[in-house]
Amino acid sequence: MATVATVAIVGLGPVGLTTAVAFASQGHRVIGFDIDENRRAEVTQGKPPFYEKGLEAGLKKALRQKRLSVVDRMDDAVRGSGIIFLCVGTPSKPDGSMDVGPLHDAAKSVATAWRDEKTRTVVVKSTVLPGTAESVVRPLLQAAGVPFRIAVNPEFLREGRALEDALRPDRIILGVDSPGTARILRALYRSSRCPVLVTDLRTAESVKYATNALLAAKVSLANELANLCDGFGVDYDEVLRGVALDPRINPQFLVPGVGFGGSCFPKDVRALVASGTANGYRPELLEAVLALNERQFARAIAFLEKELGDLVGRRIALLGLAFKGNTDDVRESRAVPIARELIAKGAIVAGYDPAAMKGFSKLVPEVHLVNSVEEALKGADGCILQADWPAFSGLTAKDFRGLMTNPVVVDGRRILDPKKMRGVRFHRIG
Ligand SMILES: NC(=O)c1ccc[n+]([C@@H]2O[C@H](COP(=O)([O-])OP(=O)(O)OC[C@H]3O[C@@H](n4cnc5c(N)ncnc54)[C@H](O)[C@@H]3O)[C@@H](O)[C@H]2O)c1
Questions:
Q1: Which pLDDT band holds residue 2 (cuts at 50, 70, 90)?
Q2: From the CA of 384, how far away is ligand 1's center (Å)?
Q3: Residue 68 sits in which domain range?
Q4: What count of Cα atoms within 13 Å lies in the side-chain half-sphere of residue 192?
Q5: What is the pTM (predicted TM-score) of this model?
Q6: Is 160 in the pocket of ligand 1 (CB under 6 A)?
Q7: Is residue 109 domain-resident?
Q8: Checking CA distances to 60, which of 40, 70, 155, 377 falls within 20 to 30 Å?
């Protein structure tokens, strides 16, 4: 029988909780810990603190089978485990640089709670700049005088399909301090049939940033090309179809829209820009990726103004408040600047999202939240579709014409078929 690992997960956010449920479903024994007491209570009751397809069922099963438990003290998480995953947040500081504070605190409390001579493997799963495991985590463990191994194992799950991605990753990157650490982690991931790259700590940290920088750059490049296509009067989709015939160009992530958001791309690209600049290399291309992303949403509002004139007193439906469909995560959602700008221009904004209304109301309380697409569209002068929820993709010209006072619609995620928008003043970027 394959070995069962005992894994502690520190930080039960989207990454930590999904990882915990995935390991438990693969037969490992998992102990979860989070400093947030409410979060611990919710997870213990089988309620994920955020919306993620399939996670609640997976969590309930893991708790029922007693493969996952949540503890109230870091001591219990450390004592019961052989491998400790650090999955805490690495947010941006106001200057864009990475805030290493939560990781430092988590590693410090692991080191403090480690009271025996058992050798454990500490794995940094949080997205951290190259060198962080060596400069932040390792010294804290060394200072505690505990016998440890250290690794970096960046996470590539996509919110909205997080559990599926964690259960069936398309690659695993293991940055390790020794071949022994690699063996331990390979055994842990034994049921994942995908390429595994074993490398050093800094390279593993770099792979995550390089991936996010490339993906964010693809989105901004697609937006730039689509904006140019708008000027040429050319359909970007047709252009992309032609471009994608070149085997060197993968069309994924080349879909234009109102820009990228979420908890990863903006903060990770900002962190690269800040750390590169601090190290004497200013990454101007990445600066441009961010700058274009910051202003891309304005094109959606400009279309409404072109069609409606002054927006004062106009009622605008904002469909999709999360940063994308299938999640309730509103971090860096493009719905935030869109709503703020519309309100600054005097519009009345009716917002709807299948899952993200609660989180969004804290960010832009002036938006009138409504309970359905129909309610949002009713009497509206304009509509911006901001997130690619499947429920929105079935909207037809009849819906817009039947409900809106002025059927002026911007598809900010390219999920509606323009050929089916007869009678609607319809725009999508590119
Ligand atoms: N969310 C994603 O889609 C995603 C994908 C890949 C990688 N990542 C990276 O993974 C990391 C975690 O992301 P997330 O979205 O889950 O973060 P998050 O901030 O939503 O959740 C982190 C959790 O850690 C807890 N925490 C903070 N300090 C702690 C401590 N000292 N001890 C115990 N718990 C503590 C917080 O209470 C919170 O519940 C980040 O570095 C992120 O960039 C995120």
A1: low
A2: 30
A3: 6-199
A4: 23
A5: 0.96
A6: no
A7: yes
A8: 155
